[in-house]
Amino acid sequence: MSAQIHAKVFSQRSVALIALSIATALPIVWASAANAVSLRVKLACSRDYYALCSQYASDSPEVRQCMRAAGEKLSPRCINALIQAGEVSQEEVSHRAAQLR
Hints:
Layout: H1 3-25, H2 39-53, H3 61-70, H4 76-84, H5 90-100
């Protein structure tokens, strides 16, 4: 295998392993399947969780309440992921943003 191909394969494997490690290490995992949150939301909101709601167990109902209460403090990345996952509607986000103006 040439050095370039070997480096590219190694790089792709490294990225995949890092992504898998992050995904499995994130504590934003809700207890039941009905309340499960997508990997995309977990990745997009992990910083928000640590900054705003890490005082709550990641599998507790208080996490969702805390994240909802933190609303305007959430990062745009997290908000967009929550909208796409159906956790919150664009209308609710827009309404809350209008209230802050």
